[in-house]
Write a structure and sequence with these properties.
By secondary structure, the protein is of the alpha/beta class. It has helices at residues 2-14, 19-27, 59-68, 87-93, 106-118, 155-159; strands at 48-51, 54-56, 77-81, 98-103, 124-128, 141-146, 161-173, 176-185, 188-196. Bound molecules: S-adenosyl-L-homocysteine.
Length: 207
Amino acid sequence: MIANIKMVEELNKIFPLDERIKKAFIEIDRREFVPEGLLFDAYKIDSLPLTNDSTISSPLTVAKMTTYLEIDKKVDSVLEIGAGSGYQSAILSKLVRRVFAIERIKSLVEKSGKRFKKLKLYNINLKYGDGANGWENFAPFDRILFSATIDYLPNSILEQLSDRGVVVAPIKNGDREVITQFKKIDNRIIKRELETANFVPLKRGVE
Ligand code: SAH
């Protein structure tokens, strides 16, 4: 836990964290989400491999994506597409009332489900499936986060977003990916490109 606090201090120096986000990072020990063979690297500011098609994002990336979602006290629900290890969802679970998370690789869903139980994160609703078109049953969501790169933002996702909602997604642009924020205000979409990134690509179907 002390090593986790040190990691959060290091993060905060590189990318200043809002107090609530900082608290969430302190409460969620990154070690719990790292595969056993990589525990030595659990607190490094790096992404780590989970499977051929999945990585646990760098804590810096998680800090940025969380910040770009602009979560205030009024935000009730967040959907994460590409839950992977569950680390990002766990951080979000400390900031909002309900988290919905989808992952297409079964072994990862099983592992992250166990982690959420162990850490008593009962407000995360995790689903095994293809999340490319969101999760209609629980829509609308106040925030939607893509943790895998998409070519463009589908309309089905915007339809599942509340008014005044925010989507954050890495969007492919030639050979670059740009973290992009979309805000929906009175059915108008305001798009802001934030910075380049390096996520795994969104894939269709399940594994
Ligand atoms: N936030 C996660 C990131 C995992 S990497 C973490 O830090 O652990 C992105 C994840 O997106 C991968 O696990 C990959 O399997 C998943 N993914 C890719 N396409 C998907 C889709 N269509 N539906 C759901 N998950 C998907």
